[in-house]
Amino acid sequence: MSIYQVIIAEDEPLIRNGIAESIEWNHYSTALAGMAKNGVQALELIKSKHVDILITDIQMPAMDGLALIKAAIQHNPALQVLVISGYSNFTYAQNAITMGVREYILKPIKIDQLKEALKRIVVFLDEERGQQQKLSQYETFFEEFHPELSKGFFQDLLFGSLTPIEIERKSKLLSPKRVEDSYLPLVVFLETHTFFEQQQLLETLRQHFESFHKEHQLELEHFFSFTNENLFI
User: CA–CA distance from 119 to each of 26, 27, 112, 115, 128 (Å)?
Assistant: First the structure.
């Protein structure tokens, strides 16, 4: 289970310490990474260590909460922000939401309300992390099997078994180049009598083609071998 790092930015010591002591951080898969009495101190903490969640007031000296949120998210776009504010004015909440604030709580703070907001943020972070892990797994799978997928695509392309829409879609996925502009198929018929002779000739042809492509700064994308003919792309 992930442990998310939290910092508190609040200029009132009673509220700042009260939040720190009232929440069982490990119960919410979180840890208190630091506290700050103004936005400047909070931003220094965010820049000096990995922070997942920022709990911040709006009205603070040196740098207010809105300026802190803007600078903090610019530094770490994945940062989740929970605002605690005495401002009930909708404009403040609207500005905060526009900046990407996840939760907005009005003072006086109800600790149960704060805990529920923190819980929702943790659930969101867990879901985000799960999606990132799945994406990473898909990318690893695609990277591992890309050569075979690409080879299958070009083989289907050679035999005319793809529709124009399929060609467009698969070429974008499997090839960085435009298929219709950048590839030249070459068909070679081998007149050999034994399998051993055929394999020797295939290897010789492959070496010659690789040498030719390197010399002319071209790329031999795939090599196909069939029973009575051999295709080079």
Answer: 12, 10, 10, 6, 14
Burial, 8: exposed, middle or buried (Cβ in 10 Å; 0-12, 13-18, 19+)? buried
Say if residue 224's pLDDT is above 50. yes
What would the mean pLDDT of 186-208 be, rounded to a whole number?
72
Q: Is 4-133 a CATH 3.40.50.2300 domain? A: yes
Spatial separation of the C-alpha atoms in residues 89 and 84, rounded to whole Å: 13
- Higher pLDDT: 17 or 183? It is 17
Q: What is the 3-state secondary structure (H, E, C) of 75-118?
A: HCCCCEEEEEECCCCHHHHHHHHHHCCCEEEECCCCHHHHHHHH
User: How high is the mean pLDDT of the chain?
Assistant: 81
The domain locations on the chain are 4-133, 184-233
Give the whole-angstrom CA distance, residue 86 versus residue 186. 74
Strand duo 30-36 + 4-9: pairing: parallel
Chain centre distance of CA 1: 20
The confidence band for 175, taking pLDDT boundaries of 50, 70 and 90, is: low
- The rounded distance, in Å, linking the Cα atoms of 112 and 129 is 26
| Over residues 32-51, mean pLDDT | 96
Helix residue ranges, H only, the chain: 13-22, 39-48, 65-75, 90-99, 111-158, 164-174, 179-182, 195-215
Spatial separation of the C-alpha atoms in residues 100 and 194, rounded to whole Å: 70
Peptide bond just before 61 cis, omega within 30 deg:
no
